[in-house]
Amino acid sequence: MEIVIDTSVLVGMLVPNDHWHQQAVELGKAIQKQAHSPVYLDCVVAEALSVIVRRLEEKGLSAEIDSVLKKWNAQIPSDAISWVFPDVPRLYAETVGLVQSSAGALNFNDALISLACRERGIESIASFDHDFDQIDWLERLSVPEDITP
Q: pTM, whole model, 2 decimals?
């Protein structure tokens, strides 16, 4: 089973002092243990990388950026990324419509992720973001117990 890894989980996995670190690491281990395939969407990768670098810089931990990026590159080589951005022109109106129908609970990126999952037949997302709970075609996985064989 393919499982999209959302920004909150990806940041948590890679940043040791992140609020979600322990839960994200445990969730990642459960996904791996059950031999599910993590899917890294380009829009998530871009957002997560920006969040990680900004948080480290804000906390005065710029010296750690290099080690985090080495870990990043080991976990997410460019050939492991699923490219969604080329679909944005085609999905733009539907993405904005999903943001609107959620009354703004979903931001543009989360709406795009949701539509990309639907188009690719991916039914699960590893995320700590409750906003995905309103997406009928996605099951949000947030704890290791959510991962099934």
A: 0.93
